[in-house]
Input
Amino acid sequence: MKAYVFPGQGSQFVGMGKDLYEQHQTAKELFEKANDILGFRITDVMFSGTDEELKQTKVTQPAIFLHSVIQAAVAQDFAPEMVAGHSLGEFSALVANKVLAFEDALRLVSKRALAMQKACEEQPSTMAAILGLEDEKVEQICAEVEDVVVAANYNCPGQLVISGSIKGVEEACERMKAAGAKRALVLPVGGAFHSPLMKSAEAELEEAIKATEFKEGICPVYQNVDAKPHTDPKEIQENLIRQLTAPVRWTQSVQQMIADGATLFVECGPGKVLQGLVKKIDKNAETSQVG
Output
């Protein structure tokens, strides 16, 4: 079975999507529609901007979303039997799977980016990558720290990202190193994504998500919050609301897709990050880039 997977924040690069725009009329039309919806020419930043411009919150998330969704739209043999997206990538997966309309999802992604940025400004916070510890040990240490710090991204075995207050993350990193972590590295991110500190952003996004039409998809979507397959529009909607404050269970999602028959994971979007993670989760899994 063929599973399509969609990347999240961090996979952006200057020049992304330019080839799609120049080679496909459908892509050009979708990019121009996105420029109109967003109220600025995101294509100018994507195709020929600077790294700094591309890192702006209002640009990064819509840019990755657009690249992923448009790449899927012009792919010749796009025929998913299951889909999943890493954090932001879940929105791309839902469009490719016909659950969300392109325009609706782009508006949600833009609102999500701005709401997350606002939450970060309200309360300085951060994230850190923990390498070489069991998930259970990371969870245990986080629970022992008094300040807010939680497991946020289960990327692959031995690679987990924690999220929380600056003090909480720094203390947790020291404890992780003492417990034998190979690395405990604070990440250059804007804030504590996928943690309770995103509650204000979740509340802001909830209203918009509830006002958006969700349809039954063409195949199951394996969602971040529980790593389980979903086809019911109401369930998908509820899980998407919870996503901002809940951890990204990527390891468990990939394992569940394999258990349910996935034999090939096709990454759709910029970069090859997810292909690498899939291989670390199961070295026998076959991966490729969308063509």
